[in-house]
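Box 3.1 A note on notation
Throughout this textbook, protein chains are presented in two layers. The first layer is the amino acid sequence; the second is a C-alpha cell string describing backbone geometry. Keep the layers aligned when reading.
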Amino acid sequence: MPKISKFLFFIIFTLCLFNLNLTQAQHSESLSIVTYYPSPYGSYRELRTKRMAIGDDYIKTGSPPDKYDWQEYATDPMHNIGYDADLIVQGNVGIGTANPSGKLEVAPNAYSSLSISDAGDEMDNKDNVGIDLVKPDTKEVCARILLNGYFNSSDVGGKINFYTKELTGTLQHRMIILENGNVGIGTTNPQTKAGESGLLDVQDVWLRDANGGSGAWASESGGAAYLLYRDVEPSGTWGMELDRNVWQTRPLTEETVDSNNNGSLSSNRITLKAGTYECYILCPLLDGNGEPKAHQARLYNVSDSRVIAYGTSEYSEVSGWSMSYSTIFARFTLASAKTVRIEHRQSGNTTNVFLGRPNSFGGGEVYTIAQFRKVK
C-alpha cells in the first residue's frame, strides 16, 4: 500500500475512535458522595450502631488516647469500640419523658413514673441509690426505696430504707431492713429480725380487735392494755359467806396486772379510765346445804348506779357440798373514768353459802378472777 494511503487510513481510524468515545461520554452518569464528621443534626428514621456514647465527655480525644477515645484494636473493653453493644450516657435517660429527674426515669403514663437516681448523703453518709415513684410534671417524690451501700477494700454490705409521703406532708421514713437482717418499722435501729422468736421491732403498732373492733395504738397511754384483779385470801381461809336474795359485793384484794395504768383498786372497787373494754370475770359459789338454789353475778357501775353486764344464770341442786360458777363476758364503753364492782346474789339459805372453800395448799386461796382488756 502506498505510504499516503496508510496515512489516510490512520487519520480516518483515529477520527472514528474519537467519535465513539464522545458518544459514550454523552450517555454516562456520575455519582457524588459527600461525608461529614461529625454527622449533621436531624431526625433519622433508623439508626443502627454496635456501640454508642452520648454526651460531650465521650467525644474527647487525646494523645495518648484517654478512656473515652475508643480504638478498634484496644485490648480492654473501655477503649475498644469493637466490644459487644453498649449504650453509654453521660447525662440522664428518659423513657416516656423529655425531662428525666434521675439517671433513668421511666414514665408509663402522665400520672406517675419510676426514677433511679443518686440519693447522695441522705442517710449515714454512705453511697446511696434511690428508686423513686415520681409525679412526672412536678418531679415530686411520692415514695422511695433507698439502698444504702457500704464499700471498702475488704467487704461490702447494704441496707434498705422505705419512705412514703402523705397527700399534704413530706417524705417520711417508714421501714428499714439492716445489713444484719434486723427489720424495723418506725425506727432506724431495730434490734430483732422479723419473725425471730415471734418478735418485730417497731416504734408503734396498731393492735386490731380480732372480732372487728377498731383497735388501739400499743404506745398510747391506755392503748391495748390488759388488767387483772383477783380475790386472793390467805391459805386456809374460806371465801366470804353470801346472804340470801341480796346483791353483795365480791371482794377483790389485789391488782395483779395493769399494763398501761388504766385502772386502780380500792375497797373492792375498780376505777377504770375512759375507753372501750372487754371483760371476763369468773365468780364461783359454794353451796354447803345441798338444797336447790339459783345464783348469778353482775358487773355494776357504781358511778352511774347501773348494771353494765350480767353473768351466766346458774342453778345448784346437789346433795352435800357443790361448787358452780357464774361467768361474766362483756364489752362496754366508758365515756369518762368510772368506778365498778362485782356483785353476786343467791336464792338459797342464809347459811353455808360461800364464795369458795379453801384447799389449804399453801399458795393462797383464789376466789374471784376479773380480767379486762382495753381495746380502744
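The chain has one helix and 26 strands. Residues 3-26 form the longest helix (24 residues).
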